[in-house]
Design a protein that fits this description.
This protein is an alpha/beta fold. 45% of the residues lie in helices and 7% in strands. It has 3 domains: 4-119, HUPs (Rossmann fold), CATH 3.40.50.620; 121-152 and 191-264, Serine Threonine Protein Phosphatase 5, Tetratricopeptide repeat (Alpha Horseshoe), CATH 1.25.40; 275-441, DNA Cyclobutane Dipyrimidine Photolyase, subunit A, domain 3 (Orthogonal Bundle), CATH 1.10.579.10. The protein has 19 helices and 6 strands. Strands 1, 2, 3, 4, 5 and 6 form a 6-stranded parallel sheet that branches. Helix 4 (75-85) packs across helix 5 and helix 6 crosses helix 11. It starts with a strand and ends with a helix. The chain binds a DNA duplex through helix 6, helix 14 and helix 19.
Length: 442
Amino acid sequence: MTDSAVLWFRRDLRLGDLPALLAASARAPRVLGLFVLDDALLRPAGPVRTAFLHGCLAALNEQLDGRLLIVKGRPDEVVPRVAREFGASSVHISSDTGPYGRERDLLVSSEVELVATGSPYAVAPGRVLKDDGTPYKVFTPFHRAWERHGWRTPAETGADLVEWIDPQGFADRLSTGSSTVDGVNLPEPGEQAAVTAWERYRERLGDYPKTRDRADLSGTSRMSAYLRWGCVHPRTLLAELEERDEVYRKELCWREFYADVLWHRPETARRNFDRRFDNIEYDQDEDRFAAWQQGRTGYPIVDAGMRQLLAEGWMHNRVRMIVASFLVKDLHLPWWWGARHFMRHLVDGDLASNQHGWQWTAGSGTDAAPYFRVFNPTSQGEKFDPDGDYVRRYVPELRDVPGGKVHQPWKLPVAPAGYPAPLVDHAEERALALARYGAIKA
DNA sequence: TTTTGAGTTGTTCGA
DNA sequence: GTCGAACAACTCAAA
């Protein structure tokens, strides 16, 4: 037993149910909390996710009575230096199972003793395997095996477990950056906010199966940003679900499935999971891409979604599928263009869920949508935003169009001022998409 | 090894 | 308006 240890926070910005903290406390009575602002990690993130991160760091710092050490730099340089400086013999982490995190941790572990305890998942990626020892490629059997595997109950941890080392005077110490972005409505950051949001949502969990697909209602839990930064662990949520919450539990499992897929196939963060789709013909139309990004396609549900993304750093899950289908199958643009845009703007942007969600839409992923499954943006709008409230909330040009009529503005006697005509004809583009997908099968 | 049942999220067409 | 079938085979998982 030595005197002190480092707890290096990454995507586990909390103190409750944190096994790495338990492990650190078993090694040393005095612990230094560290976060490394790593350019490589933050590069794909835009101002929104960065601001939310800073908010979470500020909240964590407050929980530690101002003793969180934030340092900018390369982890393989910063972490060993900090450990040396504070006389720590071990550095404790929760595993990061993404492609970048794995390489980074391998590099750091050649310099210091890196002790990994726990992961951001109820079941760590790589644990659920088929009887023959190979990973699952289809969700439903993975889900069955994942439920069978099970997970621990939440660990009892908290700030009072150790004495936190005060890093006052450490030369490179930074304070947290801004936790706001002009014009963007972000969720309240931090562990306490996550717990409060979850407690409030729990009362409405029973409605989840009925309302989760409705863009106009607040039927989803909006825990994604908190799960992204580990303000709360999925185990904590799972422990409070009941039998009847199967649909919600399944959604948490999707997050674990995609993390598992990325663990086994790290290259699929950039490339098609199914390499046969490398031959699909995509267009390279920057103007159409810009119209999609800005929410000026002339299809109201698509434009509302893209504008919600810019206004809130978040988009309703159903609408994410609609805009993704539109980019890939109506505009014929590469899925990774859309994936990159999402990763830049989403406050909950998670590499595994994002890249594989996009590949599902594009047809190139695990358990992919059959290629003939092309979302119709008009009927999806009418189905999941029946009164048009969602569209009017984000598209002011259509604010005076009543009810569900808002989904087909081109049918109105007078075209709404300032709103664009449809960028493409859906029926035509659908036929073209089917033809291109059919071509690679031949 | 072989066989069998099944596979997130949809649309369109024709009866 | 409502309903079922077609869309297309193919791969996966497990018995």
